Structure to design on (411 residues):
């Protein structure tokens, strides 16, 4: 079907909310990989797409991770004469100052005067009226390669809205910092939610553009519709490349360590174990007040605006594991989600019946939805070994790996 493009709408956002200095320092002290020096993101290759945007109204789906060089994409493109008419913001908002799961309202960006449509408020996807004045949508969000990450659901909904309204979607591709890993149980679609939108494993090992091609190719959108895609691919990229993100992709993934541990530690959101929300080092520690005496390391979650206002065990001392200096090369070498921490914490916790009971706190998630299966919880409770658990992920995991090959853009 031929699509007439009248204008382009770009959904973008500026830099993340300026957290406290400890948060910023943790991120900036991360050393970029030498591999990343030769890698060029899709957004940075402006010569490949600026001519396509000329004379069109633009809309971008973006957040503070959306950068061209060291500037926000919206600012850079406006300076280059691109006509940005709307901004669409995902979870955490356009400016990145909303906590996980927090409702985000529509607004007007005070810096540019551009209307900001929330994709994490009353509606999960752009409405027809939002796209009426748009000729082209641009998607430029940094993903982290884990099924739990809500930006995958955002990608699906944006693609679906574009397809339904005959709008083309340009994807400015970005690296997957966990691209080396394809692991975990494939989602049982009976457990579909915003943290598990497609039948993929915990770690999918794909870039956003590759994943978008898979959504199209597998017919996962309503009525099997397809979205017309225009991809600006990465230059000099391989899935196995180490890549340190220059900007943290969301408030609680504020260090490279947390990003690499995220596929393994996010499962704890469905348990009574704190993952460090309410500290300046979330997703790098694990703990619970009831583990006092079993572990020496301790931390105390506090209310932190824009990160976690009401964290689990707020103002209570939690005891457990400090993984801030864990050698993530072990994860990269194994190419596996680490299940040993989950098994260890369950064995150590004294009140077994409470470990997975998310009704105890609004700050706990549904473990089955995070895992993508009801089996993993049952296996942990039954004391199954890691290898026994992994065996149950087949043949689904191998079938996904084979299907994934159809949509890869990079080796």
């Amino acid at each position: 079907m031929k699509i007439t493009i009248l204008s382009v709408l770009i959904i973008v956002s500026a830099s993340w909310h300026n957290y406290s200095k400890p948060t910023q320092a943790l991120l900036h002290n991360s050393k970029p990989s030498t591999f990343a020096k030769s890698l060029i993101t899709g957004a940075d290759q402006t010569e490949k797409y600026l001519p396509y945007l000329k004379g069109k109204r633009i809309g971008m789906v973006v957040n503070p991770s959306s950068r061209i060089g060291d500037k926000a994409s919206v600012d850079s493109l406006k300076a280059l004469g691109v006509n940005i008419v709307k901004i669409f913001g995902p979870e955490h908002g356009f400016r990145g100052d909303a906590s996980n799961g927090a409702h985000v309202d529509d607004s007007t960006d005070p810096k540019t005067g551009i209307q900001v449509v929330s994709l994490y408020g009353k509606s999960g996807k752009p409405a027809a009226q939002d796209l009426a004045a748009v000729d082209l949508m641009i998607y430029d969000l940094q993903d982290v390669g884990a099924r739990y990450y809500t930006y995958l659901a955002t990608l699906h909904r944006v693609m679906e809205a574009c397809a339904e309204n005959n709008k083309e979607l340009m994807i400015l591709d970005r690296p997957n910092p966990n691209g080396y890993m394809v692991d975990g149980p494939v989602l049982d679609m009976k457990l579909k939610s915003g943290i598990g939108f497609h039948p993929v494993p915990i770690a999918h090992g794909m870039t956003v553009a590759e994943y978008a091609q898979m959504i199209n190719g597998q017919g996962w959108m309503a009525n099997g519709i397809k979205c017309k895609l225009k991809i600006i691919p990465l230059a000099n990229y391989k899935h196995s490349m180490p890549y340190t993100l220059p900007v943290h992709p969301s408030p609680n993934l504020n260090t490279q360590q947390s990003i690499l541990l995220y596929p393994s530690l996010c499962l704890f959101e469905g348990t009574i174990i704190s993952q460090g929300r309410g500290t300046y080092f979330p997703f790098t520690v694990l703990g619970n007040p009831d583990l006092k005496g079993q572990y020496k390391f301790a931390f105390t979650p506090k209310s932190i605006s824009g990160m976690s206002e009401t964290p689990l065990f707020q103002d209570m001392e939690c005891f457990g594991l400090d993984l801030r200096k864990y050698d993530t090369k072990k994860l990269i070498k194994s190419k596996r989600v680490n299940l040993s921490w989950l098994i260890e914490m369950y064995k150590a916790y004294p009140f077994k019946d409470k470990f997975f009971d998310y009704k105890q706190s609004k700050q706990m998630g549904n473990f089955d939805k995070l895992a993508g299966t009801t089996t993993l919880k049952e296996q942990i409770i039954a004391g199954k070994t890691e290898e026994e658990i992994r065996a149950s992920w087949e043949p689904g995991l191998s079938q996904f790996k084979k299907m994934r090959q159809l949509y890869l853009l990079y080796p």
